Amino acid sequence: MPARARYGVDAPPVLVGLASAAVFLIAATVVTAVLAGWVAILPGLLALYFVASASLYLHTTKRGKFAVWREILDGLALRGDERALDLGCGRGAVLIAVARRLPAGQATGVDLWRSVDQSGNSPAVTEANATAEGVRVSLDTADMTALPYPDESFDLVVSSMAIHNIHPAAGRLTAVDEALRVLRPGGRLVIADISATKAYASHLDALGLSATTRPLGWRMWWGGPWLPTALVTVVKP
Fold first, then answer.
1. How many domains does the chain have?
2. Do residues 50 and 101 share a domain?
3. Residue 118 pairs with which residues in a beta bridge?
4. Tens digit of each residue's pLDDT (9 = 90 or more) over 33-85
5. What is the pLDDT averaged over residues 25-36?
6. The domain that contains 102 carries what CATH number?
7. Which SUPFAM superfamilies does its entry note (predicted)?
8. What's the rounded Cα separation, in Å, for the pair 209 and 218?
C-alpha cells in the first residue's frame, strides 16, 4: 500500500490546551454533579465550550484549511508554468496543492521547521508528503525575513498561518517586504493569516500597492470566530 501524506496539526500546544481544558471541565462537571447537583451547570457549560472549540480547531487544521486553499488556488487560474514560493511551508499542505497546479513550473517551500508551529515539522516529512502526493517540490531552510533568493525570482508567493509567528511585529513586515522583493513584476502575493493581516494590508498600501483583504470564513476559524483567518492579496506592479 502506498504511503499516505500526513500533514500534522497546526500549533499543537493550542490544541492540547483546548483539549486539556475540556477534559478537566468534564471531570469537574461529573464531580460537581455528584456533590452539588445543579451547581454542575457552570462547569458543564464551560466544558461544552472547550469541547466545541477544540473540535472546531481540529476541523480547521485537518480539513477546513485544505478546502479553503483549494478554492483560493483555483481562483488564481495559474497557467501551470509559474515559479512559486511558499513562506513557512511546514509539512506541505499549501506547497503541495500549489505544486499540483504547476506541471511545467516549480514550487519551492521555506521553513525553519519548528515543531511548535506544526507537529512533526521537518523537511524529510514534507518531502515524503510530496512523494506520496505525486508531486515534486524544492525545500530550503530559511528565515522569511532574509530569503536566500535573488530579486524577482518568483511569479507567485503564498503563505498560510506562518508570518504571524515572527517576533517582534516589525519582523512580519520585513517578511512581507522580502516576499515583494523576490516577486516578479505582475506576480501575486497571497497571504492567509490571523491577527496581523490588517498590518500587512496597511503596509502594502503604504508602499503604493493596492492590497485586498477578505475573511476566509468558519472553515478557518481557529477554535471560534474570535480567531478568524483573513486573506491578503496584492499584484506587484
1. 2
2. no
3. 10
4. 666 665 567 777 787 888 889 999 999 999 999 999 999 999 999 999 999 99
5. 69
6. 3.40.50.150
7. S-adenosyl-L-methionine-dependent methyltransferases
8. 28
Cell matching residue 170 = 516589525
Cis peptide before 168 (omega within 30 of 0): yes
Please enumerate in sequence order all residues whose Cβ is within 8 A of that of 177, keeping only pairs 6 or more positions apart, or say none.
none
Reduced to 3 states (helix: H, G, I; strand: E, B; else coil), residue 17 is: helix
Cα 233 to Cα 235: distance, rounded to the nearest angstrom: 7
The residue among 86, 67, 229 whose CA lies nearest residue 154 is: 86
According to DSSP, the residues that pair with 230 across neighbouring strands are: 193, 215
> Residue 160 falls within a domain, yes or no?
yes
Instruction: Determine the structural domain holding residue 229 and report its residue range.
Output: 66-235
Distance, CA of 160 to CA of 231 (rounded, Å)? 9
CB 160 within 8 A of CB 69: yes
CA dihedral 200, 203, 204, 207 (to 10 degrees): -170
Per the CB < 8 A criterion, the answer to whether 123 and 92 are in contact is no
How many whole angstroms separate alpha carbon 61 and alpha carbon 58?
5
Cell 515583494, residue located: 180
Give pTM, 2 decimals: 0.90
Neighbours of 167 (CB within 10 A): 8
Same domain, 94 and 124: yes
Q: How far apart are CA 194 and CA 165, in angstroms?
A: 10
Residue written as cell 501524506? 5
pLDDT, tens digit (0-9, with 9 covering 90-100), for 91-101: 999 999 999 99
Q: Is 40 in the same domain as 157?
A: no
